[in-house]
Design goal:
Elements (H helix, E strand, L loop, with lengths): L1 H4 L4 E4 L3 E5 L3 E4 L2 E4 H23 L10 E6 L2 H12 L7 E3 L5 E5 L8 H19 L12 H16 L22 H10 L5 H4 L9 H17 L4 H9 L4 H5 L8
Parallel strand pairs: 2-5, 5-7
Antiparallel strand pairs: 1-2, 3-4, 6-7
Helix pairs in contact: 2-4, 4-5, 5-8
């Protein structure tokens, strides 16, 4: 990175992640937090996500093919330079490659990712996506019948760490508060009590990026249900989706009272 980009970088490697932070400081409330401190907080957050995923999916070291590379830059210019050299693309927003060698790149975009809480939530959300895309058989399930799982798990681990979820892998990600201000448990419960028609048949075939924020909340709720009521099913479902088996066929025996 240093040689190709022509600038020094702060890097920290953990068991599952290779993290880079190139920002001097970011706001946290009324305080300013250094990039060095932020880097260590991100390392703790992402290893927390990794430990939860290991527990939930009975993962082993052999299940992973690479470390997850996650980069935070202090300007759009360096973000785009990294994209052009390493990702073969050029965007103004955050960008990730999933599967065999996952990479996530973002810059401290004003109004979106220019505070410590926003960056930590964004990284936790995407850390989960990256792990599950790389695990077992490197393959992103979000566009091959597993959009509901991909969306649900990203939101679940972000929610677990920070008590809300505001990040979406869709254009609506630019909304400041998303669906129900990112606090979903009570609103989703009320919706399920009010609406009696089943929603899973229409939700399961959708790709991650085509869902509305409200549908993302339903995916989070279904993932939460599976995690607490059918946890042993998570790994078999993930493997089946990576083999492109129909989602409805694979999940039918695990839905229980869920619709």
């Amino acid at each position: 990175l240093e040689r190709e980009l022509g600038c020094p970088v702060m890097r920290l490697e953990t068991k599952r992640y290779d993290l880079v932070v190139v920002v001097r400081e970011l706001a946290e409330g009324t305080k300013r937090i250094s990039g060095h401190v932020l880097l260590h907080r991100l390392a703790r957050d992402e290893e927390h996500v990794s430990n939860l995923v290991t527990e939930h999916y009975a993962m082993t070291d052999q299940d992973y093919r690479a470390k997850m590379r996650m980069w935070l830059w202090d300007s759009l210019a360096i973000h785009q330079k990294a994209q052009a050299k390493f990702l073969g693309t050029l965007t103004t927003g955050d960008f990730k490659m999933l599967g065999h060698d996952p990479v996530f790149s973002v810059w401290d975009e004003p109004g979106l990712f220019d505070t410590v809480p926003a960056v930590r939530a964004l990284f936790a959300h995407n850390a989960a996506h990256m792990l599950l895309s790389n695990a077992c058989e490197p393959n992103w399930v979000g566009d091959i019948g597993g959009g509901w799982l991909d969306a649900g798990l990203g939101h679940w681990y972000e929610y677990e760490l920070f008590g809300r979820t505001l990040n979406y892998c869709i254009e609506e990600a630019t909304l400041s508060d998303g669906y129900e201000n990112g606090q979903w448990r009570a609103p989703v419960r009320r919706r399920l009590e009010r609406e009696k028609d089943p929603f899973l048949p229409g939700l399961l075939p959708k790709r991650t990026g085509t869902m509305t924020p409200a549908e993302h909340a339903l995916c989070w709720s279904f993932y939460d249900y599976l995690l607490h009521e059918q946890r042993a099913a998570l790994r078999p479902i993930l493997l089946a989706l990576k083999h492109k088996k129909p989602a409805r066929q694979r999940t039918r025996s695990y839905t229980g009272p869920y619709r």
